[in-house]
Hints:
Elements: H1 37-62, H2 74-100
Helix pairs in contact: 1-2
Amino acid sequence: xxxxxxxxxxxxxxxxxxxDDGFIDLxxxxxxxxxxxxxxxxxxxxxxxxxxxxxxxxxxxxxLVIDPAYADRTWPVLLLGLLLFIPGSYHxxxxxxxxxxxxxxxxxxxxxxxx
Length: 115
């Protein structure tokens, strides 16, 4: 077995301090909470439009608003209301849970729309 030479190889080595555990305090701190206002505004608009279209579609379906002879106009309104209501209510619920500080909810779950 070859012995290492005691001659310096040109590399400079320094001894690490014994009190250093290799971690810094900043890596354990959370960054400040960034609220995606644009995405929450879009979610609220989707939620309100979807709710309005669902209510109007329901009134059209029952025949309280228009003549039942034109009932073929109710299904597109109901479908569009449902397509707007589902993602809007989901993201509003996520934002509400994150705002209240409920465990498991965070603003990171809401996608950001940066242009």
